[in-house]
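Let us work through a complete example step by step.
Step 1: write down the sequence.
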Amino acid sequence: MHIVFVFEDFCLGGVERVTEQLITGLLEGYNCRVSIICERKSGELTSRFDKLAPIYALSDKNAFITFRRLADELNPDVILFTKGGLSKYGLFVPKKIKKIAVQHVPINLPQENYFKNIIRRLGATFLYSQLDKVVCVSKGILTNLIALNVVKKSQAVCIYNPVLDKSIERQAIENVDFDDYFVCVGRLHHQKGYDLLIETIYEAKKTINDIKVVIVGDGPEHDNLKEKIRSKKLSDNIILHGSQSNPYKYIANANAILLTSRWEGLPTVLVEAAFLKTPIIAFDCNYGPRELTNNGENGHLIDFMDIGNFANAILELNKQQKLPISPNVEPFLLSVATDSYYKLFKSLL
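Step 2: predict the structure and record it as tokens.
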């Protein structure tokens, strides 16, 4: 079976990390051949993907023409678009090739206005009508796509991301340079709500002056966040630690993982935290935190944008004698998720 994976680039993001896991699982455990097409051959993970499969970059000027040519030359059995928007290239793929897109985030994004979200929904409805299947990374996203008539019920399937394998446990035991800290992991992007985190820690510091949060990640909001941290006099409390090849050791040794996102699909970092038995404090954003924490029974679920209660949850965590039981993360094991994808591919051929 020949599978082509389509990427934007190879920056260090959740989509790229879980897809790397999926490709690794398919190559190691199944009779699969993999090729990769990308819009831009750039990003921190480029060398790692180079070791997995041959990579073909699209032309900046004639991307759609280049994609069609590559589809003809590579002649795969299945093309998997790692993000929903990339399925635009599916319009130029021969019908004999099966096409799948993965939907990682809600169709209606909180930062977009009503009309832009209408356009997103109409665009997704048209593009997805040309596909054989749409994989949703959470039940919340699956339900939302069906309710909005973006996909038919028979066309969509929920497969949790292949997040977990034994290498995480090996990397998690490495030492870190911090102690008595909370952790955030993710790109420095508006979606992740780090501006809300700063406001939250500003409130928490009124009670615990030396509270510490380590943010692992980089991105377009770095300079803005650095200035906001400085203006709030939180430079000793919030540490922008940059991208790290091993985020797991920071998660494993933290008091808790904090997630202040405005929206998600199903946050990879919460799955990793649950696997490593690190407590979770998260906004109840759409989608994922509620689903993963079993409606807040297996973590601290805070009403979205309730900065005061989020700060209180941080302050109260160390006082709890008995922490919540970690969520069940077995569906996110590499072996389970990879097998689900392989069965999906087989069912289409």
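Step 3: interpret the result. The radius of gyration is 20 Å.
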